[in-house]
Specification:
The protein is mainly α. It is built from 9 helices and no strands. Helix 1 packs across helix 2, helix 1 packs across helix 4 and helix 3 runs parallel beside helix 7.
């Protein structure tokens, strides 16, 4: 629980400096009627923008973590088994979140030690805290991003080839990282599908040879796929492979 609270505080710390000035948030008065001066309208629009971005902050931060690969692979596992909504979406998302916290624990620890705690102790400013927090996140994303995706995004953005990692903008690194994660997730998903596809083909061939063409093969193959998954300890294999793929 303490780690989750730290992560939530860190997320707020990362987003606020981009949205508000260092002097603090302006006061808000909610009412009906025309604004007395343009400044009030500007303040209201700024607060609306802050609230909108803050509502999307968790999703934005998740896109810079291991969550993408994990949740896509877990979804592939469920579809390959053919169990429809089992496990439910809440369990898939929950397992993906906790595995993400597990994988990202070293990165979050660096963010907490180098950015959050010094900022709370008033040793550094908001801008310095933001810069220090982005560094470990960028290092993680660089390790998981392939050069082909990074070159593609740099070319689309019309930016020259970087000499080092510092020359790559964060706004270019994030979509390149997301593309790399999706590519790896689909590669792992393909490998997950193969054994279940073999079971479906064997069951379909047996039913056809018995002349039972009107019986859907899925009805017969589902128990065998579940049995195969349980016998090989499938969840442990999937989770261990996923976690080890980040190291």
């Amino acid at each position: 629980m303490k780690r989750l609270i730290t992560i939530a505080i860190t997320a707020t710390l990362l987003m606020l400096p981009l949205l508000v000035q260092a002097e603090g948030l302006p006061s808000i008065t909610v009412g009906i009627g025309q604004a007395a001066d343009p400044g009030e309208t500007s303040t209201a629009l700024q607060i609306l923008l802050v609230l909108t971005v803050l509502s999307m902050a968790p999703a934005i931060l998740l896109m810079t973590t291991a969550f993408i690969r994990i949740v896509v692979v877990l979804s592939f596992v469920r579809q390959a088994m053919g169990t429809q909504q089992m496990p439910p979406n809440q369990i898939i998302i929950g397992l993906a979140l906790f595995l993400t916290f597990f994988v990202m624990a070293p990165v979050f620890t660096q963010v907490n030690d180098n950015a959050l705690q010094p900022y709370l102790d008033k040793q550094i400013s908001q801008e310095q805290a933001l810069t220090a927090a982005v560094i470990p996140m960028r290092e993680f994303m660089f390790k998981q991003t392939k050069e082909t995706e990074l070159e593609l995004l740099m070319e689309i953005a019309g930016q020259p080839a970087p000499d080092n990692m510092e020359d790559v903008p964060t706004m270019t690194l994030i979509p390149a990282f997301m593309l790399s994660e999706l590519k790896r997730a689909f590669q792992i998903g393909f490998m997950v599908y193969i054994p279940f596809l073999v079971v479906d083909m064997v069951v379909a061939s047996v039913l056809m040879s018995m002349g039972m063409m009107m019986l859907p093969p899925v009805i017969i193959s589902l128990p065998f796929k579940l049995l195969l998954f349980v016998l090989v300890d499938g969840w442990n294999l999937v989770v261990s492979s996923l976690v080890q793929s980040f190291f």
